[in-house]
Automatic annotation (TrEMBL):
PANTHER family assigned to the protein according to its UniProt record, in alphabetical order: MACROLIDE-EFFLUX PROTEIN, MAJOR FACILITATOR SUPERFAMILY (MFS) PROFILE DOMAIN-CONTAINING PROTEIN
Entry-linked InterPro entries: MFS, MFS_trans_sf, Plipid/glycerol_acylTrfase
UniProt domain Phospholipid/glycerol acyltransferase: residue ranges: 463-579
Keywords in alphabetical order: Cell membrane, Membrane, Transmembrane, Transmembrane helix, Transport
Annotated transmembrane regions: 20-42, 54-77, 89-106, 230-252, 264-285, 297-325, 345-367, 379-402, 408-430
Name of the protein in question: MFS transporter
Membrane topology: Multi-pass membrane protein
Main location per the UniProt record: membrane
Taxon lineage: Bacteria, Pseudomonadati, Pseudomonadota, Betaproteobacteria, Burkholderiales
Length: 634
């Protein structure tokens, strides 16, 4: 069945006005901040006597300080009040802040501009919980990855355009500062106009009593999120990405000037490439994830952040321009592109951005999908607090390390290595991320998997899934294509296999044995199944009890009836097609002949049938349903 493209959301009122509002907000943030950074970096003496590197690391820190102070309050406001009206209030605030900034530009007053930086931090703090709580309220679960991807793409395209225009406008002589002032006020007004088109979005907790003590409320928000381990660790992963990004991006102005010997255009080029990377990575998430929240992309993104962060260090050392360009000469972007080694640097920056998109989009969608809907804005607010603390820590670490004599390329290397350590730690705490990555890797490299009616698997609540059993990788294929985690019931001997056993233990599979072999383990399996269903989880069993030796479906055993007798939940029949030629089956046909015939990427299908009510469940009926779903394609 054909699925609508994620860009079709841009034609719908439930998404389009919101998209343009947040796009223009991101655009204006960077139109303003980039112009300020360019002025400080390339015309510092006319504004301040402070070191440019200190100011360029201080500005991001001041921008995110309001996240620490006001995120808890912002989260409560977003849960208590209707989101469209609250968005309009925030946009009016942006207009006022940009008027203050315009006065700073016109009067050549640096500290007035820095006050506006803090003001825009307040604006973003108030809008953040509204932004990410709005999406799950207006979009279907299967639209979340696409909606988040388009939103993140729009955010980074807005950042890119703001950075480019801000850097270009402010250096126009003699009226660059006036152009910058007018542009920021105009964009704020356009954002306000877009906000008036956002549809009514009811408050999830209108009776919530606001606590103005931001310290106690911040602690309360974070403690509430910690109750859901997966959500909380996803929040930490999200915050780590902003730590990584803050360390890298804050160095770009001085890196472009002192290491690449470029002018402000070189700085804009680096930001452009990075933003294009994040935008393209965010959009690719929907295609790579199959329109579901695919957390297997998170480890994939993390690997890329480390690999290309390390290579950026070596590419910086290999850059030949530093030795060939005379001191005091700063090349424009086009001249830099002709320097040996510059394309490698740009490729690394592009890949860091792209893999950052793979890392961040699934985490956002997972938090939105799995946190308490009544507490979503406060959960996002808690995440923003963590983001702010991590980014403040990043700014502080950069100032300390650079002050101790580290070069900017060395700082890139330290950041990439830290990312590897943190990723290993997070994935050891939540093995589901790594397991999903291995499953995702399998079905996107070895196989081409198509799903049919997979939306029949419920987005929430308990159910038993039954499927034909063809190969040793059946569970991996099903788990990689299902929209939510599944507890598989599997023969206990599989857990002794080196790699597969680790994967299934990580996925919290339930081992089972025949009654004549180990009656205690069999009874324990039924208890574990009942407990999982009681907790609202999905459980998948293979009622044949063994792999097929002929490619045909064996008789279904009575275990399914015993499960349903204990716990009355729907049963969903499924069928795998195309796995009989897989190498990990009991197919007696010549292995090399099969491998040659199926080629490098075999085609598979998972077909999902209509749910069967518990009172109608019989092994014979379920076998007929699964056989009908599979058809003649083994």
């Amino acid at each position: 069945m054909s699925q609508p493209n994620q860009f079709s959301l841009l034609k719908q009122r439930r998404f389009a006005p919101f998209f343009w509002t947040q796009f223009l907000g991101a655009f204006n943030d960077n139109l303003f901040k980039t112009a300020l950074v360019v002025i400080i970096t390339f015309d510092a003496l006319s504004w301040t006597t402070m070191e440019p590197s200190l100011i360029t690391n201080l500005i991001p820190g001041l921008f995110i300080l309001p996240y620490v102070l006001f995120s808890a309050t912002a989260g409560q406001l977003a849960d208590k009040f209707e989101k469209a009206g609250l968005t309009r209030f925030v946009k009016w605030l942006e207009v006022g802040i940009m008027c203050v900034a315009a006065l700073g530009w016109v009067t050549h007053h640096l500290w007035l501009l820095i006050a506006a930086v803090v003001g825009m931090g307040v604006h973003s703090t108030l809008f953040g919980p509204v932004k990410y709580a709005y999406l799950p309220q207006q979009l279907k679960p299967e639209e979340l990855i696409g909606g988040n991807g388009v939103t993140e793409m729009g955010t980074f395209v807005g950042i890119l355009m703001g950075e480019v225009l801000g850097a270009v406008l402010v250096v126009q002589q003699p009226h660059g500062l006036l152009y910058e002032a007018a542009a920021t006020v105009l964009v704020a007004a356009l954002g306000l106009a877009a906000a008036y088109r956002i549809p009514h979005s009811p408050a999830p907790a209108p009776d919530l009593k606001i606590s103005w003590n931001f310290v106690s409320e911040s602690v309360r928000n974070i403690n509430f999120s910690r109750k859901n381990r997966t959500v909380f660790l996803s929040m930490l992963g999200n915050s780590w990405f902003w730590f990584y990004g803050a360390l890298i991006l804050a160095q770009f102005p001085v890196y472009a000037k002192d290491y690449l010997h470029g002018d402000h255009g070189a700085f804009v080029l680096l930001l452009t490439i990075f933003s294009l990377g994040v935008g393209s990575g965010s959009l690719l998430c929907e295609r790579l994830s199959g329109r579901k929240v695919e957390i297997g992309l998170v480890p994939f993104g993390s690997i890329g952040l480390t690999v290309f962060g390390i290579d950026l260090y070596f590419a910086s050392l290999a850059f030949s321009g530093g030795a060939l360009i005379p001191a005091g000469v700063h090349l424009d972007a086009f001249a830099l592109l002709a320097q040996h080694g510059m394309w490698r640097i740009l490729f690394d920056v592009l890949m860091i951005g792209m893999f950052g998109g793979f890392f961040i989009v699934p985490l956002f969608a997972l938090i939105q999908l799995r946190c308490d809907p009544q507490h979503i804005s406060r959960t996002i607010a808690g995440m923003n607090i963590l983001n702010a603390l991590f980014m403040v820590a990043a700014a502080g670490l950069a100032i300390v390390l650079l002050g101790q004599g580290l070069t900017i390329p060395q700082l890139f290397l330290v950041t990439a290595l830290l990312n590897a350590v943190v990723a290993i730690y997070i994935f050891s705490l939540v093995p589901e991320f790594l397991m999903r990555f291995l499953a995702w890797l399998l079905i996107h490299t070895v196989h081409r998997v198509r799903t049919v009616d997979v939306e029949r698997i419920p987005a929430e609540g308990a159910a038993v899934l039954v499927c034909n059993h063809v190969s040793y990788v059946d569970a991996i294929v099903i788990g990689a294509t299902a929209p939510r985690p599944i507890r598989f019931v599997m023969d206990h001997r599989i857990f002794k296999l080196p790699l597969l056993g680790w994967i299934f233990r990580t996925a919290r599979a339930i081992p089972i044995a025949p009654a004549k072999e180990d009656p205690w383990l069999m009874e324990k399996a039924y208890i574990d199944i009942a407990q999982a269903l009681h907790e609202g989880e999905l459980v998948c069993i293979f009622p044949e009890g063994q792999l097929t030796r002929t490619g045909d479906i064996n008789d279904f055993k009575g275990g399914i009836a015993k499960i349903i007798d204990r716990t009355k939940v729907p049963v969903i029949p499924m069928a795998l097609r195309g796995l009989w030629t897989h190498l990990l089956t009991r197919n007696r046909e010549n292995v090399f002949g099969r491998a040659f015939r199926i080629g490098l990427r075999s085609r598979l299908e998972l077909v999902v049938g209509e749910p069967v009510a518990p009172q109608d469940v019989t092994p014979e009926d379920l076998k007929q349903r699964v056989a009908a779903l599979r058809g003649d394609w083994k």
